[in-house]
Amino acid sequence: MPPETTDKRRLRGARTRGMVLRQAVDLASLDSLEGLSFGRLASDTGLSKAGIQTLFGTKEALQLATIDRAREMFTGAVVQPARQAPHGAARLRALTEHWIDYATAPLFAGGCFRVANLAEYDSRPGPIRDALVRDQDDWRNLLSRELRHAISAGEIVDQDAELAAFHLDAVLCAANTGLRLGDTGVVDKIRRTVEDVLAAPPG
Amino acid sequence: MPPETTDKRRLRGARTRGMVLRQAVDLASLDSLEGLSFGRLASDTGLSKAGIQTLFGTKEALQLATIDRAREMFTGAVVQPARQAPHGAARLRALTEHWIDYATAPLFAGGCFRVANLAEYDSRPGPIRDALVRDQDDWRNLLSRELRHAISAGEIVDQDAELAAFHLDAVLCAANTGLRLGDTGVVDKIRRTVEDVLAAPPG
Questions:
Q1: Tens of pLDDT, residues A22-69
Q2: What is the ipTM of this complex?
Q3: Chain A residues closer than 8 Å to B169 by CB
Q4: Helices of type H across chain A
Q5: Chain B interface, mutation test: which of A27, A33, A108, A122, most B Cβ atoms within 10 Å?
Q6: Which CATH number does B3-197 carry?
Q7: CATH number of this structure's domain A60-197, picked from the four choices 2.40.40.10, 3.40.630.30, 1.10.357.10, 3.40.50.1370
């Protein structure tokens, strides 16, 4: 087989995969990963069910690929752009503002991908729950690292960084639900929470 | 028809209804209200599908009755026992401790009923979402009323009671997910959050 044909086929496969996964993250953010099926994705994208099945193999492989795609999109929308801000309080403010855009625009049709899915999978041990928990841990660890930066730089009041990261994340998750319900007042609640956590030490 | 027969029939209907709903709240806390079906409840309870369908009519009526039953059970396990404590900081501590029991024991097989379902219904307007939001509003309003009590009694630092109630509830919801994942360290995080919110004014 001439190399161009193989390359073209690979490119077409990657493009199809991308198209299916873009649809899958939206569906999973609205209805949860459990609702994903090759048939539903075929009818939503206009591709053949057999073709999609060949690309992913099993439903679980599709679900895990969807989680990875959502993670990449979240990182691209929230984590990477915040890297322009210096470590510590400035980075935390940037992360929060990009998170607010992520949840209000929203990047995924059903809002925060992790909130939509972890509530469904938290009682079901297995690779899907593990992948969602890995994303949650990475996000909270990122927040607590920046909090420790801010504390050791003397930018903010000394506090338990892990507990503060848990708080911040809890408020973001609750605000995500509020946004889905049309309560835009939660954006102000997020900003006030962040400013409480990032209060400068007295004197 | 003699009155005893009608009474007996009514009693049997109520008992069956109670049995079905007890199973339904567990299922809905694990898999969400969307996963409820007359067929599944029939096979789980050993009752006839037709009999259950006659009792509830439509799937939506069954879902709404399940929300009401979960609300009654939550009120009985968390809100009512806390009424023994005086209004304000003591009542808030009692509510928190009963909530911790509710989520750790747990009262429902899948943990907090609202967290399990609101994440699924937050993007779907309709009577089910409305009922879940009503429960969330009532719970947060209860917390903020007790916070205002504690503030006006001078028990705790003056603060925005509505924002503090949002925080407390956000931390409880995040802790519920942690508990489902086997992270018992979240109980300590709840207690420390509550003590931060309930800190006495200086002097």
A1: 999 999 998 889 989 999 999 999 999 999 999 999 999 999 999 999
A2: 0.92
A3: 174
A4: 3-31, 38-45, 49-56, 59-74, 80-82, 89-104, 113-121, 127-152, 161-180, 185-197
A5: A122
A6: 1.10.357.10
A7: 1.10.357.10
